[in-house]
Amino acid sequence: MAASTLTEVARLAGVSPATASRVLNGSARKPGPGVSERVRQAAETLGYIPNAQAQALAKSSSGLVGLIVHDIADPYFSAIARGVQDVAREQHKVVLLATTGGTPADEKEAVAAFAARRADAIVIAGSRSSRPEDQQGNAELAAELDRYCRNGGHVGVVGQAIVGAGALDGYHLVEVPNEQLAAELAGRLVASHSGDFVIVGGPEGLITSDDRIRGFQSGLAAAGRPAAEVLRASFNRAGGYEAGLELAQRIQDARESGEAREGDKPNLCIFAANDVMAIGAAAALRSQGFRIPRDALIAGFDDIETLRDFRPGLSTVRLPLEEIGRLATLSTVGPAGPGEGDFDHDTGPAVTGQVTLRRSTEWTP
Predict the structure, then answer these.
(1) Domains and CATH numbers, the chain
(2) Which residues pair with 153 in a beta bridge?
(3) Average per-residue pLDDT in the chain?
(4) Is the pTM higher than 0.85?
(5) pLDDT at 57 over 70
């Protein structure tokens, strides 16, 4: 059966379509109570569903917040999403979700879809890319965001600035000090580990991973230690598992050659550029008969909620992920109103993290 129309509602209520629209779409210009009641009764009788875009035009607000993440199944993004949802609920708004796989081209399509639905704000969480293959996608994403902001939209970005984006009204950046925190982690680990370090990172050009790798290397250098070898893999659990298999083979080769013996203090400490990669690497080592921290030490980054069930406890850098989601959303739809308050395109709200050492980097004879 065809959906009821605004014209049919107006006819049943005995008013003009314009009057019916003002009642049902939330216009500031409203007819008298008796007319409004007749229109609402007619709409209920016919089962009429108001047009959300028409309501957005009438109210200058759609009540929608768009959230763009790489993978909602990743605990890093789901924690940020909870923070976004909390603020949206406080502001009586609804969150629309888009997952992109991490490419700026897909993010551009998501921004365009949210803009077409007149979303009041858009939050983008996920690493930026400086890879040559993403150059065109970066340019198109920046242009789409420029168009959205110039039409009154507000954007909160987590992590790093959108590549190529200008200083736009309505654009807000929540920076995460990945490099600084990774350097602090390295400084803490070298205090108790005299052996080798290996970094398991994402593809080169993935800015979050590159920042964390660079920070860890600078922390090693500051302690007078040589640079760590970097193994590149997918920036997820599968990538960590792949790298972990390679490292398990190295441990096995060292034992077979007599360079290391079972029961000795591990010579290898692994820094994975995020926790899910660390979990994957530890699982790969376990599949080959090795254990953390008996045979190798390992640390991650993010302190995702999943670590509550990970044994041994994983050393990591704790980020306030839900609070980051809140900050990004408040920067766009906060109580002071979009674009107002203490949020600035250049500096953004402050985010801090904390190095947290646990059993995975503590070897005992």
Answers:
(1) 6-59 (1.10.260.40), 64-176+322-333 (3.40.50.2300), 178-318+353-361 (3.40.50.2300)
(2) none
(3) 87
(4) no
(5) no
